[in-house]
Backbone:
């Protein structure tokens, strides 16, 4: 039997997973008579988790709206993470300036498939609260605000609930999302799995040839592939644990590190501390979601294999 995760980091995560399972049972008792209190308590539990495991310079706040540089505020968001340099005077105003927000999360005690439509729309709203960035592959595929979903559990409708989640998410994405930069970045269901969005660009002769074949039906030059990879403690024939929360913390740290170079050493440490095992199903996007300048750069110069480059084939 192969041991995939042995680092002490995953021991911490196993313990936290067990604590969250106990907390979920307690919240379920509350929810029978007071769903509002149960939901608020779930948000606070996740907020404390993020405060304890993300870089200490980032402030975690609950219940606020994001104010774009122009236009109307977003819908209320359950948890927000603020830039370390966000003005102290504004930190408790509950109307947070988009330029100072690095992440936003919706929290669910129990995630239901029927929630996904609204969540996908809220992700689009949050991602578009800041101006679109141009000029490099990374900038055109990512917005500076991370959007995620945090849940203690998911509705149980048979052993194929994960397949149903993928199917529902795919359906809502193809209906609502116009660009890969608008996608949800991470979905964590503490007792089930963490789903991490990865974006791969397969355009031109420098790209992975096998992956380019996926696009032959509509564009011989290739395109963009986005995949929600499922990280779980329950992969068949593998002895792994601590993956669900461990992957969540690692991925959030990595996403923050792309925008803040001071975090890269620790993000790299977490990456090397264990093997993050995953499976997923891709969604294909036309290459024209990128600007002509970026496409021409890829066709002429290809990709970079340097860590943290803005021209990597895979993010």
Residues:
């Amino acid at each position: 039997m192969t041991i995939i995760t042995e680092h002490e980091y995953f021991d911490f995560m196993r313990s936290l997973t067990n604590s969250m399972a106990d907390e979920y049972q307690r919240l379920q008792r509350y929810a029978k008579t007071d769903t509002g209190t149960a939901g608020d308590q779930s948000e606070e539990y996740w907020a404390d988790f993020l405060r304890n495991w993300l870089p200490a310079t980032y402030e975690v706040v609950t219940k606020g709206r994001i104010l774009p540089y122009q236009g109307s505020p977003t819908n209320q968001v359950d948890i927000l993470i603020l830039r370390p340099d966000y003005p102290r005077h504004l930190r408790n105003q509950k109307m947070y300036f988009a330029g100072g927000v690095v992440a936003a999360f919706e929290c669910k005690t129990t995630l239901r498939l029927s929630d996904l439509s609204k969540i996908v729309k809220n992700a689009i709203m949050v991602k578009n609260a800041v101006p679109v960035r141009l000029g490099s592959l990374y900038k055109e595929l990512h917005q500076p605000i991370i959007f995620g979903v945090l849940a203690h559990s998911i509705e149980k409708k048979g052993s194929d609930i994960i397949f149903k989640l993928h199917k529902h998410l795919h359906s809502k994405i193809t209906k609502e999302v116009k660009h890969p930069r608008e996608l949800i970045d991470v979905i964590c269901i503490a007792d089930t799995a963490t789903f991490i969005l990865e974006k791969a660009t397969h355009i031109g002769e420098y790209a992975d040839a096998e992956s380019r074949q996926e696009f032959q039906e509509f564009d011989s030059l290739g395109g963009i592939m986005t995949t929600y990879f499922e990280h779980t403690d329950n992969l068949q024939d593998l002895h792994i644990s601590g993956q669900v929360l461990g992957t969540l913390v690692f991925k959030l740290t990595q996403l923050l590190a792309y925008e803040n170079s001071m975090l890269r050493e620790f993000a790299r440490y977490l990456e090397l501390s264990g093997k993050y095992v995953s499976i997923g199903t891709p969604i294909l996007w036309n290459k024209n979601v990128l600007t002509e300048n970026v496409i021409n750069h890829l066709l002429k110069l290809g990709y970079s294999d340097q860590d943290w480059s803005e021209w990597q084939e895979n993010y």
About this structure: The chain is about 35% helix and 25% strand. The two ends are 30 Å apart (CA to CA). Residues 8-31 form the longest helix (24 residues).
